[in-house]
Amino acid sequence: MRYIRLNHRVVRISKRRDTTKGTFCDQIANTEDNPLQAALKLSPQAVGDGTASEASVDDYSDSQWEVAYTTADPGITAVEHFDAVIVCNGHYSHPFQPNVPGMQEHYHKETYHSRDYDRIKYTLLGKRVLVVGSKSSGTDMARELTQIARHVFVSDRNYKHEIDDSSSADSDDGETTAAPRVSNLELLPGISHFEPSVDDDESVIVFTDGQQLRNVDAILWCTGFLYKFPFIDAQIDSTLRAPITVEGGKRVRPLHLQLLCIEDPSLAFIGLPFSVVPFPLFYCQALYVAAVYSGQTTLPSQDEQYALLVEREASLRARGLYDGKYHYLGDEQFQYVRLLSRSSGHLPTADRGVHGSLGPMQEEDGDGIYGSGGVGDKEKEEEEEKRRRWGRYIDFLEAIYGDNGLHKPRYVGAPDTYRDRRYRVNW
Fold first, then answer.
1. Are 53 and 44 within 8 A, CB to CB?
2. Which residues of 263-275 are buried (b: 16+ CB within 10 A; e: fewer)?
3. Residue 249 carries which DSSP code?
4. Which segments of the chain belong to CATH 3.50.50.60?
5. Element (H or E) spanning 66, and its range?
6. What are phi and psi of 143, to 5 degrees?
7. What is the value of pTM for the model shown?
8. Buried b vs exposed e over 375-402: b needs ≥16 C-beta within 10 Å?
9. CA 190 to CA 209: how far, in whole Å?
10. Buried b vs exposed e over 90-118: b needs ≥16 C-beta within 10 Å?
């Protein structure tokens, strides 16, 4: 088994069928106990009548991933072939800006996205700025801009007048204290549309409650990002189609656990969920993918994975999250990382008996992925203590996340003293 990290820009990832040479695993070790070969062997998939078919039009088991990437030599593209590809390119590169009616026709001044903030913030000195969006980025940027801009307006589609009228905020000790006002900051609801002014060349921004705003020098869109994978071929070849689709830049599907392609688990995506504590979650995703690819845990069948996906998507639709928050986790992230950790063998043995939707663990002599039958009691206890510490670490993250949620400012411009909170860990 070989691992190659490509330190150059990937320009294309595609699946190529090669029935003459077999997979890379076949070439290096054509044995039944090769873990990666076994892990990437696809389960039978459902066909139109609901039955399983061993031979599918999109059978990926006899194909490899072809990765083309740039080299240090200008104009030279190199190609490597792999049995598995893990995509870890993040999702904070392609900005999303809503298509607000009338904007293109009637607003011709400065527009920026939060991605550009560090580069352009001082160009907003002394200007009237409209910040669209009041999640983490919008809240922080609006607060900073009050120090340099003439006036800052914040448009929040979830805005409620009673929040703006509130004159109190929760202090660190839970008491209600007076919230200092920011004189040059104003909260507004979502934007309805843009229209021309009858008096001059200025555009008029109309909000959902009928309020109007004129003389805005710049708009800063804090409206999130799109998922894009331009390097993945949409059509793999005449018989293989791409195993995932990106719908509207908001949904990457069909994936098992927002992680592994159901059609072809040799393609994985790390880091799709948002509103999470990112790096611990990404680490747990990596642990799970490693466990699957090494044969230390097994995936459910394709039918079971699709059934779980249908159930999850029905829940998202029922909660109004399917279109805009398909990969949102929020408070559910800790249940998610525990499921991943449990199935990859990184939680205590007592916890690993519950597999949830992840599929059963494959353990050797009851020792899990950390040990084998020959490991002594002392070594087993040391590995079990590692698992217990990992479980306590997840509990610790969840406690801090919950405490921060309780003390975050209730509206833009309220005190953000929650950032100064300190925690003591006694393990």
1. yes
2. bbbbbbbbbbbbe
3. T
4. 95-226
5. strand 63-70
6. -65, -45
7. 0.78
8. eeeeebeebbeebbebbeebeebbeeee
9. 8
10. ebeeebeeeebebbeebbeeeebbbeebe
Give the CA radius of gyration of the chain: 26
Q: In angstroms, how far is CA 74 from the centroid of its own chain? A: 33
**What CATH number is given for 95-226 in this structure?**
3.50.50.60
One-letter amino acid for residue 318 of the chain? A
Sign, CA torsion 81/82/83/85: negative
Round to whole Å and give the CA distance between 427 and 425: 6
DSSP assignment of 13-32: EEEEE-TTT--HHHHH--ST
DSSP 8-class letter at 244? -
- Nearest to residue 295, comparing CAs of 258, 331, 344? 344
Q: How far apart are CA 141 and CA 350, in angstroms?
A: 46
Q: What is the pLDDT of residues 183-209, one digit of tens each?
A: 899 999 999 999 998 776 788 999 999
Output DSSP code: residue 114: G
Helix (H) or strand (E) holding 186: strand 185-188
- What is d(CA 1, CA 111) in angstroms, rounded to the nearest whole number? 49
**Phi, psi for residue 265 in degrees, rounded to 5:** -70, 0
DSSP 300: P
Q: From residue 282, give the alpha-carbon distance in Å to each of 108, 143, 406.
A: 41, 30, 25
Comparing CA positions, the residue from 344, 253, 336 lying closest to residue 299 is: 344
Task: Read off the pLDDT of residues 51-108 as tens digits, 9 standing for 90 and up.
Answer: 333 333 345 556 788 888 887 777 777 888 888 889 998 888 889 999 999 999 999 9
Exposure string over 161-190, b if 16+ CB within 10 A, otherwise e: eeeeeeeebbeeeeeeeebeeeebbbbbbb
Closest CA to 85 of 14, 11, 9, 7: 14
CA distance 283 to 274: 14
In one-letter notation, the amino acid at residue 394 is I
